[in-house]
Specification:
The structure is a homodimer. The first copy, chain A, is of the alpha+beta class. Chain A has three helices and ten strands; from the N terminus they run E-H-E-E-E-H-E-H-E-E-E-E-E. In chain A, the strands form two sheets. An eight-stranded mixed β-sheet of chain A has the order 2-3-4-1-5-8-7-6. A two-stranded antiparallel sheet of chain A has the order 9-10. Chain A is globular, with a radius of gyration of 15 Å. The first copy, chain A, starts with 6 loop residues before the first strand and ends in a 10-residue tail after the last strand.
C-alpha cells in the first residue's frame, strides 16, 4: 500500500447546505448527482450524504456500540491503478487485523472498491476508479463532470 | 481559505498498536513523543491519542448527544503561513455558521492554532506551524524529527 490519500469524504446531513458552507469559506467545486467534489491539491474533498456513505462502507450509521468505533461520518480513500490492486490492498489489511466492512465489488461508476476499518474503526475505501486519473506520483485529478459549478 | 488539507489526524486508542498496523500495510513514518507522522504526498497522516485529539480540539470524546455530531476521532488540518491567517480563517468560518470549538491560541510547538466544526461537526484545525514547511503551492513537508523510524 503506497502512502497516499486520494479522497476525504465527509458525510453530511444535507449536501446543499454543506456545499454552501464550504463555498462561503471560499472553496469551489462541482456538484454531481447530489455529491460535491472539491479538488484540493492532489486529492479531493467530497461531501456526500452521511447515510449513503455509511451504507457504501458497509457500516451502521447508528450508535457507538454497533462497531469497533462510532461511525464518525468520515472515510478516507486510497485509490489504486487496477482491480487487482484493490484486492491486494484489502487482503493485506485483513491479514494484519483490519475489519473488511465491504468486500471488493464493482461500483456503480464502473470501478471496483472495498472498504476496511483500521484497528480503531477509521474507514478506508480502496478503489480503482477509471474516471479519476492518478498521475505517476499518485496525485488524483477530478474529471470535469460537465456540471455547472455550484451557485 | 485555500482548498488545502495539510494533515489528517486519526485519533487512536493506542498509538503503538496503530502505528504497527500502518507499518504492516507498508507505511513508513516517524514517531515523536507518542505521535506517529506519515508523509503522504503533500500532506501528513498523523496517529495520535484519541483523547488528546478531542481535548486539543475542544470537543467531548463521549456520547453522540454532546455535540453537533459524535466525535468521530478525526480532524483535518488546514495549515497557513501566519498567525494572522489563522485568525482570519477561523473568523470566516464562524461568520458562516461554523462552531469554533477552540479559539486560536499559541500551541506547545511554538505555533498558533484554533479549531472549528463545520455544520455537520467535522473538525478542522487551522494552524500555523513554523516547523512544518508549506511550499509555494501549499504542500506540507514534515521535518526530520531526528527520531529513529518506528521499528
Amino acid at each position: 500500500m503506497e502512502q497516499r490519500v486520494s479522497l476525504i469524504t465527509l458525510g453530511v446531513d444535507d449536501v446543499d447546505r454543506a456545499t454552501a458552507f464550504y463555498e462561503a469559506i471560499g472553496w469551489r467545486g462541482q456538484v454531481v448527482e447530489g455529491t460535491a467534489f472539491f479538488q484540493a491539491g492532489p486529492l479531493a474533498v467530497v461531501l456526500w450524504s452521511r447515510a449513503s456513505l455509511a451504507e457504501d462502507a458497509g457500516v451502521p450509521d447508528g450508535s457507538p456500540s454497533t462497531g469497533p468505533a462510532p461511525f464518525g461520518g468520515v472515510a478516507l480513500a486510497h485509490n489504486v491503478r487496477s482491480f487487482d490492486e484493490v484486492d491486494a490492498v484489502i487482503e493485506a489489511a485483513r491479514q494484519v487485523g483490519a475489519t473488511v466492512t465491504k468486500e471488493p465489488a464493482p461500483t456503480f461508476y464502473g470501478g471496483y472498491a472495498g472498504y476496511f476499518a483500521d484497528l480503531d474503526g477509521h474507514l478506508w475505501e480502496v478503489a480503482h476508479n477509471p474516471g479519476f486519473a492518478l498521475d505517476v506520483v499518485g496525485a488524483l485529478t477530478l474529471p470535469d463532470f460537465g456540471a455547472a459549478p455550484p451557485e
